[in-house]
Amino acid sequence: MIIDVLIEKIKETQNPTVVGLDPRLNFVPEFIKNECVEKYGKTPKAVAESFFEFNKGIIDNVYDLVPAVKPQIAMYEMLGVDGIDCFIKTCDYASKKGLVIIGDIKRGDIASTAEAYSDGHIGEIDAFGIKHKIFNEDFITVNPYLGWDSIDPYMANCKNYNKGLFVLVKTSNPNSGQFQNLDVGGLTLYQKVGQLVESWGEKLMGENGYSSVGAVVGATHPDEAKILRELMPHTFFLVPGYGAQGGKAEDLAVCFDKDGLGAIVNSSRGIIAAYKKDEYSKFTEKEFGLAARQAVIDMKADLRRCI
User: Fold this and answer.
1) What residue ranges define each of the domains in the chain, with the CATH number in brackets?
2) Which residue in the list 97, 106, 248, 276 is annotated as catalytic?
3) Residues 9-34: pLDDT tens digits?
């Protein structure tokens, strides 16, 4: 099961950190942007190529320290076809470095639309009788708001192609409670969704006691995360919100089990834009990758302090 691959990578690196590859133009060093503008002009393609060179620099410097990366597709989709090409190339490049790829796509739809998302992202598409793999992702994030028939189309591809899901359960944004904390027959909505995700995962259990159907549980809501850890003993957590969004290592310790497993923690700008932070000012712009590497080392130590 793909969840076992992720867990073994976490054990190997002794690091539950996932690097969010969410590039923005102001994160990219000037020398990269200048080279791409010179070659492609001031165009979306120049931005996309800047992102790819930036991503490669990050990956080259952290691939031996972390188990996974998580590219957020919105940062690429906004650039159109050039951005999607960059997303695909980034996933391929990270995969060749041995990293687990978590595609942060947050899809949520039903019937043939969900099947199309599933085939494109974690399955294969049919081109005149020939099967093609489009996106090189191991896990994807999905939104369960439409119910089981928005999740079911992904399950067959998870089984057939050894892929996984992270289902939105309790998100890290400040207003998540507006819906997720509503009372639903004595349970909050996020608790009810958590119970459902735990049951959905029974079909894809791995050897380490966790399912390939995981849950997104924000670091910024530790009380809720503690409740979900108890409700979902076989569900692996993808934990956003650490660092820039305010989540601290002490807050997210409740997401882990007694063996220090059960969760992987995302950091995006705190790592990829580390060279812009005062604490990493010793690194030059051209050493942005080294700054990211040091940020990963520091995050690992911070998490291990509390797990």
Assistant:
1) 2-306 (3.20.20.70)
2) 106
3) 999 999 999 999 999 999 999 999 99
